[in-house]
């Protein structure tokens, strides 16, 4: 199959009609083209490196990209995830759902499945045509496929929104890679502060830190990634950005919502040996501090790679400000 033939298939993607869909998406469901745009982006960034897209792996990145495109075009109350188009795309000629051993994928089953959890009960993932994957890896062909999807399935206004969002997401990804490189080479490049917008820095820092901590809270160890790829942790600055302007991974930790709040308010602190201290008064009535008191004396759960771990001196501001540790 040639590039022109795949472009033709991309133009003919079947999309459901619905009153929920506005002129931006030409009054049709945008799920399939948006998922393909996310896949194309990830192939371009070498985050997808084979024509097989496993549904057993964590879908965090793919779902985050899909979600960022989706929210540009759809009202905030209308949510979706990759689960829906990942299965429905099985009706397209270039996207082959690969069943689990002893399972079969029928058209009826494709129509029934709409979540990643349901998919995981029946399929291992999706196999793209080999020839299509080769075209996706080539920058020029990839751009033609992207232009075809955007040009066919969206209004001019939506096309501009999507192109801007794809650019923004690419910059966020590049910034997160820059932060990892700086950590690896133990350098701090402050020029990036002026180079990137606040949104790019926030999201790039989050992406890098959450990845380095593998979605695990450095304090309590909570690690929850939903089948759709949502994660329970935030990226917390150790010395706040407003004080330090420091987005280095060594000034960050992945923390769950409660531990993040507890750290930012000085309910918990970190000693020089990375053990956790807890403010005694939080246990007093009428508080019910949950698991927070059990963190006392525990050691932070940090990345295996030493160069990604926090610099002990970055905790000094926190220690001086809150006097917990
Ligand atoms: Zn936690």
How do the strands line up in the largest sheet? 1-3-2
The tally of helices reads 14
- Beta strands, count: 7
Helix and strand composition category? mainly alpha
Domain HNH nuclease: 217-270
GO molecular function: endonuclease activity
Organism: Chitinibacter bivalviorum
Protein name: HNH endonuclease
Topology summary:
Layout (H helix, E strand, L loop, with lengths): L2 H9 L19 H14 L7 E3 L5 H14 L9 H6 L6 E5 L7 H6 L3 H7 E6 L1 H8 L1 H15 L2 H29 L6 H5 L2 H15 L20 E5 L3 H4 L7 E5 H8 L3 E3 L5 E3 L37 H7 L3
Antiparallel strand pairs: 1-3, 2-3, 4-5, 6-7
Helix pairs in contact: 1-8, 2-3, 2-8, 3-9, 9-11
The chain binds zinc ion (ZN).
The site of zinc ion has 8 residues, from strand 5 and helix 13.
What are the salient characteristics of this protein?
nuclease; HNH endonuclease; mainly alpha; 2 domains; DNA-SBD_ScoMcrA; two-stranded antiparallel sheet; 325 residues; hydrolase; binds zinc ion
Write a structural description.
With 325 residues, this protein is mainly alpha-helical. It folds into two domains: 3-154, no CATH class; 167-322, no CATH class. Helices cover 45% and strands 9% of the residues. The chain contains 14 helices and seven strands. The strands form three sheets. The protein has a three-stranded antiparallel sheet. The protein has a two-stranded antiparallel ribbon with strand order 4-5. A two-stranded antiparallel ribbon has the order 6-7. Helix 1 (3-11) runs parallel beside helix 8. The longest helix is centred in the middle third of the chain and has 29 residues, at 156-184. The chain is elongated. The N and C termini lie far apart (64 Å). GO terms for molecular function: endonuclease activity. This is HNH endonuclease.
